[in-house]
Amino acid sequence: MLSLSPVADEKSDSNTRIIPDQEPRFDPLIYLECLKIVEQRDKLEKNNLTPVMLNEIMAVEDELGIDLPEQYENFLLQVGPGSEYGQLAYWYHLDLTRDGNLLQINQELQKRAKNRPRNPLKRFLAVYDPCDGSLVGFVRTNDGYKKEVFAWFEDERVLEPLAQDFCSFLQSNIDCTGTDYDLAVLKVENSHRQGMSVKANNLLRGS
Hints:
The chain is globular, with a radius of gyration of 18 Å. The protein has a single domain (20-200), classed as SMI1/KNR4-like (3-Layer(aba) Sandwich), CATH 3.40.1580.10. With 207 residues, it is an alpha+beta fold. The protein has helices at residues 28-42, 54-64, 70-78, 102-113, 166-172, 178-206; strands spanning 82-84, 89-91, 124-129, 134-141, 144-145, 149-153, 158-163. Strands 1, 2, 3, 4, 5, 6 and 7 form a 7-stranded antiparallel β-sheet that branches. A hairpin with a 4-residue loop joins β1 and β2 (89-91). The termini are far apart.
């Protein structure tokens, strides 16, 4: 089992950890729709992001010895890991039987941090590789995770804040115009409405 080291000297602070009822709301499906728009616009290979099942998340959490951040879990359940932007970036998959999974990547990072007491990698959970020499992820605290998303820069060997939270990171990682973004939002909203309509009709038939 891999266990990320908590921060023993860091005080619990509600401003530095994810609190479910205070999380900003951003539908991960908007992110997925924006990716599709960019792929069509730039003639890129389609992404292969695939939603995971809750039991897959729980299996990884058991091996890691920690829960995954809630917003990230929601992303995995709705959008999922895989490659994007023409395979120029990817979210680490959760299949523990295949190389390159989330657990394996973070085990390798922890090996690098071993015997280096001040190495920030000891608290880092990498989840995304933008293939630019950095890794993106979360920093563990003694009672959860810091709210911010961080980037580990291998060449400089530094860990720096990248976004104020996971939703902000997703929005900043979208390479589309304001008009395209509005179109993606509209598509997701229409999809939700259709889903609610189908559910309502099924309930009526059942009654």
